[in-house]
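Protein data sheet
==================
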Amino acid sequence: MTVTYQAICQAHERIKPFIHRTPILTSRIINELVGAELYFKCENFQKGGAFKARGAFNAVHSLPETQLSKGVVTHSSGNHAAALALACASRQAKATVVMPSNSPTPKKLAVAGYGATIVECEPTLAAREAAADKILADTLGTFLHPYDNDQIIAGQGTAAKEMIEDGPAFDIVMCPVGGGGLLAGTAISVKELLPNAKVIAAEPLGADDAKRSFDAGHIIPQVQANTIADGLLTSVGERNFVIMQDKVDEILTATEQNIVRAMRLIWQHMKIVIEPSSAVPLACLLEHQRDLSGKRIGIILTGGNVDIDKLPW
C-alpha cells in the first residue's frame, strides 16, 4: 500500500503531543554563496536531535498494546535508534536496538539514555539484519524498520508538511537520502501541497546508491560506502524507491570536501550544530553551480547528533 498525504496528516495529529514544531532559519551569507533564498527546517532541534522522532512516534503510537507488550526491535546507526527508544519510553515499552560497532559514541549514549537495550554488531547491513532476526525469534517482538515502513514514511513526511505550512511557496524542496524514508515522505507532502515544486534529493558521492538506483530504474544495493555522513550509509528501501521514482525529480551528489565545507558554513554562519548528513543538500548546491536566482529552496536539516570531539575540520 502506497503512503498517502492523508496518512501524513493523520500521523501529524498523532505525533503532535510528542514532537517539536521546529523553526525555519535563514542566512544571508549562505544565500549569497548559492545565489538563491534558502530556508532551513531545523530538525536538529527535534526531540532526540533528529527528524527520526517523527516516524518513530507515529509507528510506536500506531501499535496496539498487545503487540507492544512483547517489545520493539530495530537496527540503526543512531538517529532512528534514539528516536525509537524515546518513542517506546513514552508508552513504557521495551526497545532493543541493533547498532553497528562503529556508530558514533554520542548516538550510542543517547540510545542508552532513553532506556533502550543496545546489541552491537559488525558494521554491515547483513550483520544488522541477522542480529535483529535473532532477537525477534527470541522475543516475538515487533520489528520497526528504520525507513522501509509505511508508518515511518508517513511520520517523516510531517517535516515537509510543516515547512510548507510555515514557509513561503517553495520552488524546490531538498533533503538528504539514505534509506529514503524522509525523502519518500517529503516527496508526498511536496507534490500534494506544492505540485509545481521540484523535489531534489542530496546524497554523498561516496554512498550514491540512491542516485545510481534512481537513474537505472531499479534498486542497486549500497556496497562499500565511504562518507562522513554516517546517517546516509544504508541502501534505499523498496517502498521508498517506488515513491521516489514517482515523485522525486532529481538526485544530486556531493564530494566529502563540499560536505565538510557546507557543514562548517552552517555552524559558522547560522550558529547551530548539525551533523554531516544534514549538510549534504547545501553541499550539492555548492557543488552543482546553477542559476537559482529568485528561487526559494526549502532544505530539511535532518539532525544535530554529531561527535563534537571528532569534527571534520
User: Anything to note?
Assistant: The chain has 13 helices and ten strands.
